[in-house]
Design a protein that fits this description.
7-stranded mixed beta sheet
């Protein structure tokens, strides 16, 4: 399972740091990252990172957000700086996990954490 923490209320221009830890039966974790969803809209990619550190950001957060991970600790973080009102959303941790050798991977999601940017 994936457990997130770190959401909350922040003023425009402020910063927040989201954390996510994976636990349970895990053989290997492939990509990890973060998605977000606004009510009435589809869930969208924010940032994704491979085990070797290759990163993909959404154009809307590039240069403001930083994703990082610790492979051994099975954790991923999202540092969000220069936050804007339009960053308000529920943020979901994501991991592509292989639970046993020889099995295909499955997508796992965190419970979601609310990030609200407002003055």
């Amino acid at each position: 399972q994936l457990v997130e923490s770190g959401g909350g209320l922040v003023q425009p221009g402020g910063s927040l740091r989201l954390s996510c830890a994976a636990s349970g039966s895990i053989f290997r974790i492939n990509d990890m990252g973060w998605y977000r969803q606004i009510p009435g809209k589809e869930r969208e990619l924010v940032a994704r990172i491979t085990p070797s550190g290759v990163i993909k950001y959404s154009d809307s957060v590039n240069d403001r957000f930083t994703v990082s991970r610790h492979n051994f600790e099975k954790k991923v973080w999202l540092q969000m700086d220069s936050l804007k009102v339009e960053d308000t959303a529920v943020y979901y941790c994501y991991a592509d996990i292989v639970t046993e050798w020889g099995r295909p991977s499955d997508a796992y999601w965190g419970q979601g954490t609310q990030v609200t940017v407002s003055s």
